[in-house]
Amino acid sequence: MNSPTSPTSPTSKFPHIRQDFGASLVVFLVALPLCVGVAVASGVPAELGLITGIVGGIVAGLMPGSSLQVSGPAAGLTVLVFEAVRQFGLPALGVIVLAAGLLQLVMGALKLGRWFRAISVSVVEGMLAGIGLVIIAGQLYAAAGLEAPASGLDKIAGLPGAFVEAVGSAAALASLALGAGTVAVMVLWKRLPKKVQVVPGALAAVVLATAAALAFGLPVAKVEVKGLLDSVQPPGLDAFGGLADVALIGTILAFTLIASAESLFSAAAVDRLHDGPRTQYDKELMAQGAGNTVCGLLGALPMTAVIVRSSANVHAGARTKASRVLHGVWLLLFAALLPGALALIPLPALAGILVHAGWKLIPFRAVVSLWRGHRGEALILVTTAVSIVAVNMFEGVLIGLALAVVKTAWEASHIKLEVIDKGSGPVQAYLSGNATFLRLPKILDSLESLPQDRPVELHLSGLHHLDHACRTALENWAERHSATGTEPVRMTGPEPEKVPSATA
């Protein structure tokens, strides 16, 4: 008989099995309602959310990258999935997710994972804020048992009318009350004793809402159950014909960009929560790609790393990747053995969970902090969020990225002009920094304000970069200034055409 410390005992092979086992149960309880809620909000069968959670735990969980990060269906992709299913149909979803997964594998193999860390944080937070606003608006309709408009702006604009409609219907009021109660339980759950909080707030809210609906016989819609195997729909050959559609290609790129950015930013956040091994970004991107490839082959939802589940995993005491793999096993057992339990869950309860999740996606503190210290970044965040609501996810993110690039270019083109006028002799002007076309008006205004009846010495040795537009403008200004009858402008230091054309 092996002793507890025997080399062949389970604890010697898996020294942290107790911590990982306990953490896996916590993550499973957190993930279960979220997987179902995200699937329903995405307009697909609830089982597809569970399948993605299973793949995220077992497939992505076994791969190297981030040891404690947990993957699965994410609220951040709900809006994009819903629009894709509405536009292209459910059979095309598998093709989109499969293609996105393969792209992630390629990018990881090319070691592009680390470059996602270069994406402006303001753009990512603006993206999440925009998604949060659309989720909240859409799920308020679901909480009342009403059909939501298609576009983000219509969802928000139609809320007053939807409220009036709900007030006039007893069934809608009952549904709305159940959804509001779910949100209230999740908000108040954190104020209860720590022993009670061992049960995740989302799970407690769903259980209580389900019990209330059954006890009082509330006329609310329930989750429709098809069965795990019946929900698996691998994409057929005809579905791949849609790859010739430019719109479908754009959707694939949007899935790839947003899922990768969200996963790798989540990895950076999770790294700050523990002292274990750091994330290997390229390998983590490949793990996400492998998971999405499998999800695509099964016709399931796309997966990303999810900060809610990941932080729950860390705080529950997980030490190795075994916890996230086990959580996938528990999801698989639940989906296989207790699928009928899903049919008892009221849809307003899931809507309440998504409203709470959408609210947490909006970085209110970050907006206030940025506005106080970096108003340009705050403007990028707000513009990205508004663009996502007003237009769509992909174009909104592109608008945010374009603004971030313009802002960076503007700040990189810092230029300083120092003028020394001793009252007699030539006026000395010293240019330093980066002279680009973005700062050309400022440079010319300053130079043209110099006295026209005095000789000028223009010192260029302090320039790190001088682009063609500025070089031409300096030469033209020198000719104009010299044409007034004064001595020709003298340029000391490197001649304009000899100043490096690339940033030093």
Automatic annotation (TrEMBL):
Record region (Disordered): 483-504
Localisation per UniProt entry: Membrane
Keyword set, alphabetical order: Membrane, Transmembrane, Transmembrane helix
Membrane topology: Multi-pass membrane protein
Alphabetized Pfam families for the sequence: Sulfate_transp
Domain SLC26A/SulP transporter: residue ranges: 18-384
Residue ranges crossing the lipid bilayer per the database entry: 21-41, 48-68, 88-110, 122-142, 162-189, 201-220, 240-259, 329-359, 379-406
Name of the molecule in the record: SulP family inorganic anion transporter
Organism: Streptomyces heilongjiangensis
